[in-house]
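Example 9 (inverse folding). The structure is encoded as follows.
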């Protein structure tokens, strides 16, 4: 078999591989998952949102700390109860508050870790959100394989099956196309920082891998429900009851709390704005478990996202080598067939 045919066969095979790769790996569905995930969480990673989330977290943490260390220990004396009597009173009348307060030391560190994760991973999110570029959506990535793969397979395959008269020009076009596509596959990912973006994606998905699962999302939701139930009962029942027991009206009780327990007063006053924001964050986790799993399985569920770079560089190098080699090869010389001599008739 002529060497040029072998080269054209390699080009056609690489083209077919590039075309099939997104189909076999379900990349179109996965990149749609990336679009849904980044679209849903993009606002949460904006600097202003991160700053607000940190402020909210600090407010709740300060409230919880002062509530546990100062306010609750002081209330039994103010109410003329022993600590055991006060604990029994709270448990019988305000079980959700009692349960919530008892869980604060377990729940709040989880939310602290979540908020810290958002802050730490914000640069990685912004980098991953720019795959392949900051103006092209992630859903275009499969077509970066579909289109070149189809063109290479058709042109190189056509050169292989064409007759001798048109094979040379079509083969040359196929080899030039292979060289060009190969060079683009090598240069473009490097210019667009695809290796760095893919690494950022791996860092991001690794950091939230345990959160964006069915069990992880259910655990965050359960913790959020405990905090929400505690907040509702605290505001609607517990604080009014304590004010009554201390023989204070609402204004007097609020003034008392502000003077003696300012962190608790500030936290309670902010609950109705802070908790809805955390509810939105928890809802974002619940609603994106499937999208996260799709995004974290690019290119496959068993390989890191950084291997996607190899799917550009390796085929690119093969195409450049094949194209250059094929263009350097000469067609074997074909000896011209002797034309039969025309016989002449002698005229007598």
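The amino acid assigned to each position is listed next.
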């Amino acid at each position: 078999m002529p060497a040029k045919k072998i080269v054209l066969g390699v080009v056609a095979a690489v083209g077919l591989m590039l075309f099939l790769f997104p189909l076999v790996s379900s990349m179109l569905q996965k990149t749609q998952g990336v679009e849904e995930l980044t679209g849903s969480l993009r606002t949460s990673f904006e600097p202003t949102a991160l700053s607000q989330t940190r402020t909210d977290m600090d407010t709740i943490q300060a409230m919880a700390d002062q509530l546990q260390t100062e306010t609750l220990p002081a209330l039994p004396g103010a109410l003329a109860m022993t600590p055991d009597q006060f604990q029994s009173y709270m448990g019988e009348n305000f079980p959700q508050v009692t349960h919530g307060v008892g869980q604060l030391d377990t729940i709040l560190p989880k939310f602290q870790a979540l908020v810290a994760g958002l802050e730490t991973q914000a640069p990685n999110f912004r980098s991953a959100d720019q795959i392949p570029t900051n103006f092209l959506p992630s859903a275009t990535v499969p077509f970066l394989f579909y289109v070149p793969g189809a063109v290479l397979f058709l042109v190189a395959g056509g050169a292989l099956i064409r007759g001798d008269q048109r094979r040379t020009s079509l083969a040359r076009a196929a080899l030039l196309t292979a060289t060009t596509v190969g060079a683009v596959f090598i240069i473009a990912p490097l210019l667009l920082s695809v290796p760095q973006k893919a690494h950022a994606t791996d860092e991001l998905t690794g950091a939230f891998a345990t959160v964006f699962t069915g069990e992880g999302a259910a655990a965050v939701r359960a913790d959020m429900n405990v905090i929400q139930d505690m907040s509702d009962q605290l505001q609607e029942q517990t604080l009014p009851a304590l004010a009554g027991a201390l023989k204070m009206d609402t204004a007097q009780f609020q003034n008392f709390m502000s003077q003696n327990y300012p962190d608790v007063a500030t936290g309670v006053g902010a609950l109705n704005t802070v908790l809805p924001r955390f509810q939105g964050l928890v809802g974002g986790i619940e609603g994106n478990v499937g999208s996260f799993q799709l995004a974290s399985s690019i290119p496959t569920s068993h390989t890191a996202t950084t291997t996607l770079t190899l799917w550009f560089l390796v085929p690119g190098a093969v195409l450049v080598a094949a194209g250059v080699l094929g263009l350097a090869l000469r067609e074997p010389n074909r000896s011209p067939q002797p034309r039969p001599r025309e016989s002449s008739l002698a005229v007598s």
